[in-house]
Each structure stands twice: as structure tokens, then as C-alpha cells.
Amino acid sequence: MLQRIKNQWKDLVACEVKALAAEKGFAIEPDIQVLTPPKPELGDVAFPMFAFAKAMRMAPPAIAAEVKSRLEKKSGVPSGELLVAGPYLNLKIDTSALAGELYERVSAEGDEYGKNKSLSGRRIMIEFSCPQSLPHRQSGQSRFRPGRIWRSAGESKTQTASEDSHSCRYPAFPRRLQTVPSIR
To answer: What is the average per-residue pLDDT within 51-65?
Structure first.
């Protein structure tokens, strides 16, 4: 979601740089870099204007200021605050709007939120320990969480557990059974 917002701003900045260059009589295809400012007070995203200075015969800070004023006049842009920091056009992303959008998405998708098929067809070995002492049995469910996360990403794995040992059988090794005896 954050990457989508960065890409939207990157496209908007590229469009405005191209339009500014066309007004000055230059035809350029801007390749906008997306960087992270060195200090948080400078914003969340930085777009350097160095690459366009020579082609447009303008100073990078002047390009950044002009693009900022154009974007502020434009309607329909994602929420965020634009800042000029020398030759950089910086952006502070509106995290409250981002959080609201994320909340709406999670509410709409429910249990399906975050699931994908990125691990579909892949097999992953999950190793875990299982001390058989009483304090560890109370939190024993925590060892299965990585398996749940990977299954939601499309990985297929069959796992069985017994009182004395833990066995995992993976589709990649159907004839091999890995057994780890318990410690008593």
C-alpha cells in the first residue's frame, strides 16, 4: 500500500517535470528516482531534481519549487505534504489517511487480508523445538505460527505432532519422515 502511494507520487512528479520542460521548450522523458531522506523531519520520500537541471537549464531547487507549486494547485492528488529541501522535492505521507485506508481494506477482506500465492508450488522446511516441560506447553501453539503464515502465502505442507515426537512430512520428500524425539 505504501509502495502504491510512492508510485502515484512518482508518476505525478514525472508528469509535472515533463510539462515544465515542455513549457520551457525542452522534450525530456523524466526518470524520477525515489529516495528516502536522511532525516525524518525532511519527509518520507525524496525526489531529486539534479537530473533535469542541465536539460532544462534551471537550478535543481528552482525545478523542485516549481513542481511543488504545480502539484499543490492540482486536484485529485494523494494526501501528503510537499516540501522543498534544496534540490529535492520531499513528501511527508499522511499516515492517518494511510491508516484509515488500511483499516477499511482489512475490514472488507477479513480473514483473507494478506493472503497471496507467492509461495505456491514451493516447499519450505519449518524447524521448531518442543520442550515437554509444563511452562512451555502453555505457549506451545506459538511454534505453529510460521506454518500458518506460510500456508496463507500458498505453501503446501502437512504437519503432524504427537506427545513423544514431532514429525513433519513435506511433499518434496514424501518417503522421508523427519522425527525429532522429545526430551524428558
So the answer is: 92
**3-state class percentages of the chain: helix first, strand second, coil last, to nearest 5:** 45, 15, 40
pTM for the complete prediction? Answer: 0.62
Q: Which three cell numbers stand for residue 167?
A: 514429525
Residue 8 corresponds to which amino acid? Q
Cell numbers placing 155: 505453501
Residues 84, 61: contact at Cβ < 8 Å? Answer: yes
Within 13 Å, how many C-alpha atoms sit on residue 87's CB side?
A: 10
Name the grid cell of 53.
537541471
- The x, y and z cell numbers of residue 76, run together, are 485529485
Burial class of 125 by CB neighbour count within 10 A (0 to 12, 13 to 18, 19+)? exposed
For the segment 109-138, the average pLDDT, to the nearest whole number, is 68
